C-alpha cells in the first residue's frame, strides 16, 4: 500500500532523479538528489504555470475571434439594412407611411421595431410651389414695370433717378 503511494506520487520524479545520480556519479549523491528534486519541483510548477497561461491566451484569442465574428455579422446586417432602405428610397417607397396609410396616427416608436426609437408623431409635408416667393415677386414686379413702360409712366427706378 505504501509502495503504491510512493510510486504514484514520487514515481516519475524519483526514477528520473536516481537515473541522473547514476549518470553523473556525484561525490555526495544524497545532496545531489535532494537539489535535483527541488529543481524538478520548480520546473514542474513553472511548466504548469506556462500551460495555464497558454490556455488563458487561447481562451482570450477565442473570445476575441468570437467578438470579431459578432462585429462582422452586425456590420453585414447593418449594410443589408442600409441597402434595403436605399432600394426602398430608390423605388420611391416611404417605409414610415406603410401601406394605404393604415398607421397614419401611429408614432415613430410604434411603427419602428428598434430600441430607443423616438416617440414623435408624424408630420405631413406640404407640396412646395415650383416658384419661390422671391421669384414670384420679381415676376410680378417686372410685369408691372413693363405695363407702366407701355403706358408711358415712369417706373419706380426711373422716378428715383429723375
Describe the structure.
Helices cover 71% and strands 0% of the residues. It has 162 residues and is mainly α. 0% of the residues are buried. The protein has five helices and no strands. The chain is rod-shaped and about 135 Å long.
The percent of residues in helical segments reads over 70%
Beta percentage is under 5%
Mean pLDDT: 76
Give the total of beta strands.
0
Shape: rod-shaped
Q: What's the helix-strand series?
A: HHHHH
- Radius of gyration, taken over Cα atoms and rounded to an integer in Å: 45 Å
The number of helical elements comes to 5
Report low-confidence residues grouped into runs of 5 or more.
95-102
Q: The biggest beta sheet, please?
A: none
Task: Pick out its properties.
mainly alpha; 5 helices; 0% strand
Brief overview, please?
With 162 residues, the protein is mostly helical. It has helices spanning 2-24, 29-91, 108-111, 133-151, 156-161.
Secondary-structure blueprint of this entry?
Blueprint: H1 2-24, H2 29-91, H3 108-111, H4 133-151, H5 156-161
Helix pairs in contact: 1-2
